[in-house]
Design brief:
7 helices, alpha+beta, Globin-like, 2 domains, globular, three-stranded antiparallel beta sheet, single chain
Length: 165
């Protein structure tokens, strides 16, 4: 007999012996773990390959330099971009497999909820992507990851849309 849950502990039993009152008593014949199949997340592998925080802060600086002059995006941000820069850098470090300072300091990312106060439509999303693609192209450490990161940013930016055009 095998009690095999989808994930977790697998216990195979057999009738081992009779109890004093003549009941069959199972004994464990095999104990093993049945873990979930590993799923590869290419975004979460980026940090290990980049190897340090600095390129993420550089990316964020380049991105916000574009935002500073973007007529669509600039009104959505506070006058002082210091905290916004730090939050984005720490989020990207965490999401790409680096340290978890973002969540340690701010809790669960809840990105959709955090962005609800800001009207984000297709125009804002496209402007954000334009600035991020330009910034990515300026940081050589991300060159091998352009496809992975662009796809991630495109999906994520689309997820944050919260207003019709």
């Amino acid at each position: 007999m095998c009690n095999k849950p989808q994930y977790g502990l697998v216990v195979e039993t057999s009738l081992g012996y009779k109890s004093n009152d003549n009941r069959d008593v199972p004994s464990v014949t095999r104990l093993s773990t049945n873990t979930m199949p590993e799923i590869f997340d290419p975004v979460a592998a980026v940090y290990k390959q980049v190897g340090e925080d600095k390129p993420f802060f550089t990316l964020v600086d380049k991105f916000y330099a574009g935002v500073e002059n973007d007529l669509i995006l600039r009104p959505l941000y506070p006058e002082d971009l210091t905290e916004s820069k730090l939050h984005l850098a720490l989020f990207l470090i965490q999401r790409t497999g680096g340290r978890t300072t973002y969540s340690d300091e701010r809790g669960h990312p809840r990105m959709r909820a955090r962005h609800l106060p800001f009207p984000i439509g297709t125009n804002e999303k496209n402007a954000w992507m334009n600035n991020m693609k330009k910034a990515l192209a300026m940081v050589p450490e991300f060159e091998p990851h352009l496809g992975t990161l662009t796809e991630f940013f495109e999906t994520f930016a689309t997820f944050l849309i919260n207003k019709p055009n």
